Amino acid sequence: MRMRYLVFALSMGSLCTTIGCQSTYSATYHSQSTSPNARPVPTATPVPAVQAAVRLPSNYPSRPLATPSAPAPTPCCEAVCVMDALTGNVLYEHNGNTKRQVASTQKLVSSLVVLDHGSLNKLVTITTEDTKADPTKLGFRPGQQYRRGDLLHALMVKSYNDVALALARDTAGSVPRFVSMMNAKARSMGMRNSHFANPNGLPAPQYSTAVDMARCTWFAYRHPVLRSMVSTRSMEFSKADGRSVHLENTNKLLAQYSWVTGMKTGYTNAARRCLVSTGGVNGRHVIVVVLGCAPSRIWTESSKYLKWALNIS
């Protein structure tokens, strides 16, 4: 089997902004792909002692994944990337660098920008503009106030488009400025084939790739607050009018498998079904990005690559 090496440079700041610590580092990862469609990623200057430079939560995976002995499953979607969540090695990709819309999975980029700027305890005052984001909405009224952390949690669990607008406008002062911050954040994470036009993933002149979204997830997985949010199976959200809303995570894999740890769903007609999923067993964790899948296959498509990488029968 022909192996190709992918190299990408990653740099992160504000790893734990919300818990009072900050870490800035850069790293280069050499990853290999078994896909016949693999394409090289632009090369950056290597840095030594990559893993020693990365500050990880105490419960983070301690061992890299072994290269699976079995061949990778045949893809039934437009694009796939399977990445070792510790090392950043790409174990498999199919059309991994093909640009396409990624729907609400790009809210992972939005969430990282929000976490980089300001306290999660700050109150967000809703404006009329925040309410204009069909079809999936929490349902705001102008003048209502919510804690940023509560809004971000709801965004990661239920993927509300109006919540994404409210957080974007509150964080940057305007949605266009927030989008500029998203694109800057993407560049800092080595997402070289991505460009975003809104914070929620609704159809627009924007795109990313399976490999780029895996890179984003590599960073998101290292943020303890975000990891907790995306792993939430259900939650109660208190609305400003006193009502409580029960939210079930849109990621159905969380309910199906105890070893699945989160991340983010997405769907539009242009993007089709998309899912960024993460899981781990025995100290080894994996990131799987599936883009452009049929609605009837998205869960089995993602789980088969998770199981393949983690050697789960």
TrEMBL record:
<feature type="signal peptide">
    <location>
        <begin position="1"/>
        <end position="19"/>
    </location>
</feature>
<keyword id="KW-0645">Protease</keyword>
<keyword id="KW-0378">Hydrolase</keyword>
<keyword id="KW-0121">Carboxypeptidase</keyword>
<dbReference type="GO" id="GO:0008360">
    <property type="term" value="P:regulation of cell shape"/>
</dbReference>
<keyword id="KW-0573">Peptidoglycan synthesis</keyword>
<feature type="domain" description="Peptidase S11 D-alanyl-D-alanine carboxypeptidase A N-terminal">
    <location>
        <begin position="76"/>
        <end position="292"/>
    </location>
</feature>
<keyword id="KW-0961">Cell wall biogenesis/degradation</keyword>
<dbReference type="GO" id="GO:0006508">
    <property type="term" value="P:proteolysis"/>
</dbReference>
<dbReference type="InterPro" id="IPR018044">
    <property type="entry name" value="Peptidase_S11"/>
</dbReference>
<keyword id="KW-0732">Signal</keyword>
<comment type="similarity">
    <text>Belongs to the peptidase S11 family.</text>
</comment>
<dbReference type="InterPro" id="IPR001967">
    <property type="entry name" value="Peptidase_S11_N"/>
</dbReference>
<feature type="binding site">
    <location>
        <position position="264"/>
    </location>
    <ligand>
        <name>substrate</name>
    </ligand>
</feature>
<dbReference type="GO" id="GO:0071555">
    <property type="term" value="P:cell wall organization"/>
</dbReference>
<protein>
    <submittedName>
        <fullName>D-alanyl-d-alanine carboxypeptidase</fullName>
    </submittedName>
</protein>
<keyword id="KW-0133">Cell shape</keyword>
<dbReference type="GO" id="GO:0009002">
    <property type="term" value="F:serine-type D-Ala-D-Ala carboxypeptidase activity"/>
</dbReference>
<dbReference type="GO" id="GO:0009252">
    <property type="term" value="P:peptidoglycan biosynthetic process"/>
</dbReference>
<dbReference type="InterPro" id="IPR012338">
    <property type="entry name" value="Beta-lactam/transpept-like"/>
</dbReference>
<feature type="active site">
    <location>
        <position position="159"/>
    </location>
</feature>
<dbReference type="Pfam" id="PF00768">
    <property type="entry name" value="Peptidase_S11"/>
</dbReference>
<feature type="active site" description="Acyl-ester intermediate">
    <location>
        <position position="104"/>
    </location>
</feature>
<feature type="active site" description="Proton acceptor">
    <location>
        <position position="107"/>
    </location>
</feature>
